[in-house]
Design a protein that fits this description.
With 375 residues, chain A is α+β, with helices and mostly antiparallel strands. Chain A has helices at 7-23, 26-34, 43-51, 70-82, 89-103, 106-109, 112-116, 226-262, 274-303, 309-334, 345-357, 362-373; strands spanning 122-125, 140-144, 147-154, 165-171, 179-184, 191-197, 203-214, 219-220, 264-265, 268-269. Chain A starts with 6 loop residues before the first helix and ends with a helix. The mean pLDDT of chain A is 96. The chains are: A alpha+beta (375), B alpha+beta (429). Bound molecules: flavin-adenine dinucleotide.
Chain lengths: 375, 429
């Protein structure tokens, strides 16, 4: 397997960068945040991104997508991370699209053209409590009449506040894997959505389910067969999020490295001080090493999504640590201005924090690797 | 230069011509050129050949450093199989898979080299030959040597006939390597070399040494250095072993006392040796960072953990050790992918350039971390220094040896400095 970009990927990367620099700079994100948009993203921008095929990057061509695959999704996510672009790319275009595409029923397939066109947003409702741990899902669906009733609560449903549909992981049989995925219209009776503004200027939702009715047509995949579909969707999301985090790290590092050249103290640029040079050089190494793991995760998912869990966890674990280092070193090397809202470095720090928790933190992914390695 | 035409359009045809008289390979290449041979055929060919030619004794992980074959005039083969394996691989050119066939190399491109390595790994084949000639001098000669020098030295490196050592460091030229003082005086038909090198690994076992010498004392220090090749049997060359903290003496002080060196042994231009020195260092650093088993130790972390630190179910018992092992495993895996990525990025045979500083820094710091974990896992067993049970303290000695990884070939601090200046373009101090 070759980890360097193909010609197609290189072109995708260049055109994405050009578009984002034009339309979705950090300044644009800052404006969005300052306007306290309740969407959390710019719908016009998302439509334009969708027109370029980004929302359909993982959707097959016969369902209205462009079907470029996971490595390509990673290329896009990384570019978005560099300038902190807010969009439903991860929730809807990556995770929901993967779940629906994997389930491959006519009901789920019907949503794919809308997702690819950026016309609808579908969010994945998995987490409960304050840590990502799908195996511990307690929200349950009990048979009732001809269908089911869902009861329980989901937290940190990213883009859940604007979603047109939710894919809900519900316990239908024994833990850990006895799950069923339900497609739920958030306007349904018994669904209560609470928007939660998050530290990174984006939004998620807490969603409560009180005797929400669902029937067989709402099931994504098979009854009790939700786990493997969910794993596919989550792994796709984790890989893309790792790519975004690598972009976040690279973006934070880029402005920090520039600052080292611009800021003068003791009569010379602070970047001339060896203590800072060595820390910057170390950070550069960490980012490069992580970029390899991220590229590899995309390649492995494209090759065999059922066998890529280890590669995906590797990418996520590395991306978390690298982004964390990049933003904390970034703030430190900026000195006092690094603490100001006016400077961008803090925005990177906030996004990195969200990316750390979302879809499994370091401990979660390190443990998956340990199990794989027989530790 | 050989690598230059190999990279140029039509380079394939040129390298094919050079491969002409190597029957096995030209058959492969012939088929490849005519589109007959697919990647799978190529893999199958290699697989079959390895199955037939790799002696069973040369499969399975090395137990310790003594299992490494370094070659050279004075080499004493550990076993008949070790000799056989080297000879067979060398006949194929697969001790130097990407070097041109004209100089005894395998003439493989990067993809084919990977296939070869994958198939070698698949049967856990031991490396047939490790050497400073393969890691360092060969790439430098391919880039800077004249035709006669390539013809003379490269095939002997491929076959493991001549063992090389590296005469760079001196007592006052370590990190500040350009400060070398060993002097080569122009005596008309030869150079007269006087001075001292230090930390010369395996100088007492090597047949030849590649050296940085000062040929112009007036010029700025980087502009008065030349790169020359010296036969260690030349009168006036002597070595004195130095003992390491590992108790072994793999390196020496090397003295030059009125040593006459033919002018034909100058590589590249006079006083432009620094360019060669730096180029060679990028290859050395890439090797130390990732591939040089002879320097990094031969042990797999997982194996040591399984032997010492795990319960019946294979779970590592000590939670702290388990956590550290997870981190090391994650970083190692990601680093291995990075090595591959950078090699893929580099043009065939050229090395990775300044990124070698990153690979060296990261790989060696990681290797030191891994050996710390192995020692923790082994506990008091890892403290044994002598006796059969511990294979004469092999683990402890390897652990100590790894401490040199972040010093030899340029220290970690120097690597970070290179990254800061050349890659990040941070201002000078
Ligand atoms: C096992 C082993 C094998 C070796 N084999 C060979 C060989 O075969 N051939 C050969 O030629 N050499 C060999 N070397 C020598 C090796 O390349 C040198 O030891 C190395 O380059 C460091 O030089 P030094 O020992 O003089 O340390 P110094 O340069 O004196 O360094 C001492 C400390 O100061 C730090 N330092 C120095 N300059 C700076 C700076 N500008 N900024 C920040 N920190 C700095 C260093 O990082 C180090 O921590 C070997 C060394 C070892 C340990």
């Amino acid at each position: 397997m070759n980890l360097i970009p193909t010609e197609e990927e290189a072109l995708l990367q260049q055109s994405a960068r050009k578009f984002l620099d034009d339309k979705a700079s950090v300044k644009a994100f800052r404006k969005l945040r300052d306007e306290a948009s309740t969407n959390g993203f710019d719908r016009g921008l998302w439509r334009e991104m969708s027109e370029m095929g980004w929302a359909g990057v993982l959707v097959a061509e016969d369902s209205g997508g462009v079907g470029l695959g996971h490595r390509a999704a990673g290329v896009l996510a990384e570019e978005m991370g560099k300038t902190l672009v807010a969009s439903p790319f991860l929730s809807s275009a990556v995770m929901a699209a993967t779940a629906l595409g994997t389930a491959a029923s006519s009901e789920s397939a019907a949503l794919l053209p809308g997702i690819s066109a950026g016309e609808i947003v579908v969010a994945l409702a998995v987490d409960e409590g304050h840590k990502h741990d799908p195996a511990k899902t307690t929200l349950h669906a009990k048979p009732h009449g001809n269908g089911f009733r869902l009861n329980g609560e989901k937290s940190f449903v990213v883009d859940g506040h604007v979603a047109d549909q939710l894919i809900v992981a519900a316990r239908t049989s024994a833990p850990p894997t006895g799950l069923t995925l339900f497609l739920v219209d958030p306007k349904k009776k018994g669904v209560e959505i609470e928007r939660t503004a998050t530290v990174d200027g984006r939004n998620a939702a807490r969603v409560r389910f009180d005797n929400v009715e669902a029937n067989g047509d709402d099931i994504v995949g098979d009854i009790d067969g939700g786990w493997s579909i969910l794993e596919r969707a989550l792994n796709a999301g984790r890989a893309a999020l790792s790519a975004e985090l690598t972009g976040v790290a690279a973006g934070a590092f880029g402005i920090t490295n520039q600052y080292l050249k611009d800021r003068t103290q003791f009569g010379r640029p602070i970047g001339a001080f060896q203590a800072l040079q060595h820390r910057a050089a170390h950070l550069y190494c960490e980012i490069e090493v992580t970029a390899s793991a991220v590229a590899n995760a995309g390649r492995e998912l494209d090759r065999d999504p059922g066998a890529a869990a280890g590669a995906v966890s590797l990418a996520k674990a590395r991306a978390i640590e690298t982004a964390r280092l990049a933003v904390s070193e970034g703030v430190q090397m900026h000195g006092g201005v690094g603490m100001t809202d006016e400077f961008d470095i803090g925005l990177y720090m906030k996004r990195a924090r969200v990316g750390t928790e979302w879809l499994g933190d370091y401990a979660f992914h390190a443990e998956r690797i340990a199990e794989l390695r027989g530790f | 230069m050989a690598r230059d035409d190999a990279d140029a359009p039509g380079g394939r045809a040129c390298s094919l011509e050079r491969l002409g008289n190597q029957d096995g390979l030209s058959r492969v290449w012939g088929k490849r050129m005519s589109g007959e041979l697919s990647a799978e055929d190529f893999r199958a060919d290699i697989k079959n050949w390895l199955e037939a030619n790799c002696p069973p004794a040369m499969r399975g992980p090395m137990r310790d450093e003594a299992d490494i074959c370094w070659g050279g005039r004075n080499w004493v083969y550990q076993s008949h199989e070790q000799r056989l394996w080297l000879e067979r691989m060398a006949a194929k050119g697969w001790t130097a898979p990407t070097w041109p066939g004209a100089y005894g190399g395998g003439g493989l491109d990067r993809t084919e080299e990977k296939v070869l390595r994958e198939e070698l790994d698949a049967i856990a084949a031991r490396s047939p030959l490790e050497s400073f000639g393969l890691w360092m001098l060969g790439p430098a000669l391919l880039q800077f040597g004249n035709e006669a020098q390539k013809q003379e030295h490269l095939p002997k490196i491929v076959r493991g006939e001549i063992r090389w050592c590296q005469g760079y460091s001196e007592p006052n030229a370590g990190s500040d390597l350009a400060n070398v003082q060993t002097h080569a005086e122009d005596k008309g038909d030869h150079y007269l070399v006087n001075g001292q090198k230090v930390w010369t690994s395996y100088a007492d076992k090597a047949d030849w040494i590649f050296c940085l010498v000062r040929t112009d004392r007036e010029a700025p220090k980087h502009r008065g250095i030349s790169f020359i090749l010296i036969d260690m049997t030349t009168p006036g060359v002597s070595t004195r072993p130095i003992k390491l903290i590992s108790g072994k003496s793999p390196f020496c002080e090397t003295f030059f006392d009125d040593v006459k060196v033919p002018k034909a042994n100058l590589v590249g231009e006079l006083n432009r040796g620094w360019d060669i020195a730096k180029y060679l260092l990028t290859h050395e650093r890439e090797m130390i960072g990732g591939g040089a088993r002879g320097l990094l130790g031969v042990r797999a972390l997982g194996e040591v953990l399984a032997n010492y630190a795990s319960d019946e179910d294979g779970q590592i018992v000590d939670p702290m050790l388990r956590t550290d092992a997870k981190r090391a495993e994650i970083d190692t895996w990601a680093f291995m992918l990075t090595l591959e990525r950078f090699k893929d990025q580099a043009k065939a045979g050229r090395g990775v350039g300044d990124a070698s500083a990153m690979l060296k820094y990261y790989g060696t710091e990681l290797n030191k971390r891994r050996y710390e974990l192995m020692m923790t896992a082994a506990g008091t067993d890892g403290l044994e220094w002598e006796g059969e049970r511990s294979n004469d303290g092999a683990l402890a000695r390897e652990w100590l040896r790894t401490k040199a990884n972040s010093i030899e070939g340029g220290t970690s601090e120097v690597m970070l400095g290179i990254i800061a200046k050349r890659i990040l373009e941070l201002p000078g101090g």
